[in-house]
Amino acid sequence: MADVVLVTGVSRYLGGRFARELSHDPSVQRVIGVDVVPPVHDLGRAEFVRADIRNPVIAKVIARAGVDTVVHMNVIATPTSAGGRASMKEINVIGTMQLLAACQKAPGLRRLVVKSTAAVYGSSPRDPALFSEDMGPKVMPRAGWGKDSVEVEGYVRGFSRRRPDVDVAVLRLANVVGPEIRTALTDYLALPVVPAVLGFDPRFQLLHEDDAVEATRLATCGDVAGFVNVAADGFVTLHQAARVAGRPTVPVPGPLVGAVGSAIRTTGLADFSGDQVRFLSFGRGLDTTRMRADLGLQPRFTTREALEELVRARRLHGLLSPTLVRTGEQAVLAAVTPALRQLDPAREEAGRG
User: Model pTM?
Assistant: First the structure.
């Protein structure tokens, strides 16, 4: 049972929301949120400590507070939110190394939970239908969040070998969407026109932000250990997702995808990295057996429902949205029905003749 919990990355949406939700748990005595900048959102009864996990001072914070559980949520997904790719990698990799070094020196530490990503599996045409936790990528992620997360997981494995007395849980989350969170995928689906790689319609799973928070809470307060895939039930394809969002898709030939991605990144509307392009070409599927059996999570939202929550919250109702299509169909039907009724008597008379 977690008594004193330290949560990293609380100035970001998911980390801050988790710290707030955990602070409402009466079984947890104290929640300490750390980050380099104060959060703009409410942390509940969680205490905020301004600290940089890249600095060895984080060891003093853990020692002085008597922390027994560390939840590492400060692994950044997009370079735009970190001030560039170099800063992103430094926070993700160097920050994790320093945090684990601090955990190594904490004799009272009993549990470590790390937020990772399903991007560690990469995306390729040789992928299995579903990745289980004991499978590796067919093609290693070459850059970005996926590559950083592979390195982070490597350091976590090393820590687990050095501190076998500490229970370590690593959550490989599918792409998180919802009413509030902003990610590369949510920004991509909000583009006025969604670029799609010509000839591809990948399928993928999503995860609602509520279920992501609940998964982290279960990992923090429960006894699961090891790697766990976390994703919602069901799949959507890229073109289905664009249709739900009411966005038209434009096919982009493979040789031009890099140039289109660079143009989109320049505008700041969405991150369209190389790894993102591969994901939007080949997709990804996750086996969530361990999520249910060991973590004990039954997601409240399916992949389709999580996507619809995003659409409602961001008001992504373009001309192609299902709601407007149905409204148009109803309007047309209402207009032609009177005329059809007028034709019925004439048809009946013709039949008698």
Answer: 0.87
